[in-house]
Write a structure and sequence with these properties.
42% of the residues lie in helices and 14% in strands. It is α/β, with parallel strands linked by helices and 224 residues long. It has a single domain, classed as P-loop containing nucleotide triphosphate hydrolases (Rossmann fold), CATH 3.40.50.300. It has a six-stranded parallel sheet with strand order 3-2-4-5-1-6. Strand 4, helix 5 and strand 5 form a beta-alpha-beta unit. Helix 1 packs parallel to helix 2 and helix 5 crosses helix 6. The radius of gyration is 17 Å and the shape is globular. The mean pLDDT is 84.
Length: 224
């Protein structure tokens, strides 16, 4: 993946498969733990498509409920409310494009960063559309998002089904979509694991330890 600011190379076999899927497919799901590059590579690919004129804009979104917080409890106007949730998407953009260019593109609405609720009723044509932290969507939100796909658009959905922050007994839209859409032509799912973590080496060990603990807890729950 090449943009004016930098060139990105795959650092694992799964990253390579993901980058190939982004090139070829209109709908790609990148599934796996934090630090595997799934969001960063999605944003990098979107930035490249925009620079090459292959799309007219980038739309980046996240569900606005995370870690038990709801937007209603955050202070300030809409932008101030949603920015803390969307910060990682800004960070990835700034890695790929000069800051002044990002700011101009946002002002011109060539790049749009918005919570998932703002997607309702729209058709996103000629766009690279990314939904991050998709494990925190409800099934209804996920269906609403996926059906926004318009002409000459690419859609990338990233998430980690082990990090669901939805209220108890609420199904994850990501988990349900992966089940329902399995085998649908034109959709590709790439799954990452702790071996793909490209942050500090300790992050991979932390992910592995939590994964192990989760499996143990599920086993004990089943026995109970």
């Amino acid at each position: 993946i090449s943009t004016r600011k930098k060139t990105i190379y795959a650092r694992s076999l799964n990253q390579d498969a993901y980058m190939r899927a982004l090139e070829r497919s209109e709908l790609v799901f990148g599934i796996g733990p934090a630090g595997t590059g799934k969001t960063f590579l999605a944003v990098a690919h979107a930035a490249m498509l925009l620079e090459r004129g292959m799309v007219e804009r980038i739309v980046l979104s996240r569900p606005a409920v995370e870690a038990g917080e709801r937007l209603g409890f955050l202070p300030g106007d809409m932008k101030e409310k949603v920015d803390p949730y969307l910060r990682p998407l800004y960070d990835a953009l700034y890695e790929m494009m000069p800051a002044d260019k990002v700011e101009r593109a946002i002002a011109a609405e060539v790049i749009e960063i918005a919570p998932l609720a703002f997607m309702r009723g729209r058709t996103l044509a000629h766009s690279a559309v990314i939904l991050d932290e998709a494990q925190n969507t409800t099934p209804m939100q996920m269906k609403m998002f996926l059906t926004r796909l318009g002409e000459n658009s690419r859609m990338i959905v990233t998430g980690d089904p082990t990090q669901i922050d939805l209220p108890q007994n609420t199904k994850s839209g990501l988990v349900e979509a992966l089940r329902i859409l399995d085998g649908v032509t034109g959709m590709v799912t790439v799954r990452f694991n702790e071996g793909d973590v490209v942050r500090h080496p300790l992050v991979a060990e932390i992910v592995k330890a939590y994964d192990r603990d989760g499996k143990l807890a599920r086993g004990l729950g089943a026995e109970g």
